Amino acid sequence: MYQPNFQITPKMLDLIAKISSAKEVVFSAELVPSWEVSLRKDAILENAYASTSIEGNTLSKEEVTELSLGREVLKTKKEKQEVLNYLDALGKIDNFAKSGILTKKDILFAHRWIVKDTLEKKEWEGSFRKVQVYVGNTKTGRVSFVPPKPSEIENQLDEFLEWLNGKKDPIHPVLEAGIVHYEIARIHPFVDGNGRLARFLATWVLVQRGFDVKRFFALDDYYNSDRKSYYEALKTVDRETKNITEWLEYFIFGVAISIEAVKKKVLLLSGGKKTPKGKKQIALTQRAVMIVEYINQHGFITNKDVQRILGVKRQVATKELTKLTDQKILKKLGSFKDAKYILKD
């Protein structure tokens, strides 16, 4: 029977406290970017770029963005397909294994999403490997890890999933995500795409367990920023004891970095204001975000300012300002052409 081997350290507790504090700031802020329009899209693009980049994809962040908009970029068909697949998988994550129970069928399905039309052989897509693979440096030939034999894959997955779906004692979602990431990477159930699958399933845990319900995490970005440290952290696990304490400390630190970046975005927008008791957060469109950020910088905004920063005509600018005034986000001072708009107290 599988049972994760790790110790809760002071470092973990400190990081989880910081993560929870930052999350509270984000969830309690009065004004936030519309998640679908801004942070959620940013997180999906960041994850798609970073997760594929970790495994050698050469598309830049700008090219990933262009590709997501349906524009052509000068890269190989395989590299473009890897990014498009990961974007597609992340976009569907809310509806993946919605019951909260993860099965082998779900894992096969997710792998098929992630590697579609990118592998050497079509039959490898969504199919457990039937050959022995080795993890290491392809240039030097040095092997750093030998995954389980093909004949052991399904049995080890069964044991792991039995623990994941049936654990009696509650576990913090961030810890659970880190455990899922490591165990999928360790079992290495497929010929290729295991890293992307592990990071996808870790993100799914945070979403499914209610920790990242608004989908603002870009988990892979931190790990991609220092790939050497990422792989070194995975290798800290002793092959005999399978103690994953060091790996979990590293993983949780990455989550803390990610949520802190979101917190800074929200604080710049809301100025630290909390949602009044009994009221809901106000989610702003991208245009509204630009207007509020301008006021935070300059103290007020005029119709002409809105026309200039949004690149729109007076009628559209008036509509945007009226909408924000009706929402009681802005207060109008003066009238007609000389009117100025400030943030309402």
Structural overview:
The chain is mainly alpha-helical and 345 residues long. The chain has 2 domains: 10-270, Fido-like domain (Fic-like fold); 285-343, Winged helix-like DNA-binding domain superfamily/Winged helix DNA-binding domain (Arc Repressor Mutant, subunit A, Orthogonal Bundle). It has helices at residues 10-28, 39-54, 61-68, 77-91, 104-115, 150-166, 173-187, 194-208, 219-225, 227-234, 245-270, 286-298, 303-310, 314-326, and strands at residues 31-33, 135-136, 143-145, 282-284, 330-333, 340-343. The longest helix has 26 residues, at 245-270. It starts with 9 loop residues before the first helix and ends with a strand. Residues 35-39 have low confidence and may be disordered.
Radius of gyration equals: 23 Å
Characterize the biggest β-sheet.
2 strands, parallel
Q: What fraction of the residues are assigned to beta strands by DSSP?
A: 5-15%
| Whole-number mean pLDDT | 82
According to CATH, the homologous superfamily of the largest domain is: Fido-like domain
CATH topology heading of the largest domain: Fic-like fold
pLDDT < 50 stretches: 35-39
The SSE string, one letter per element, is: HEHHHHEEHHHHHHEHHHEE
The helix content, as a percent range, equals: 55-70%
- CATH class wording of the largest domain: Mainly Alpha
Number of strands: 6
Overall tally of domains: 2
Query: Could you say which overall geometry the principal axes of the C-alpha atoms support?
Result: elongated
Strand order of the biggest β-sheet: 1-4
**CATH architecture designation of the largest domain:** Orthogonal Bundle
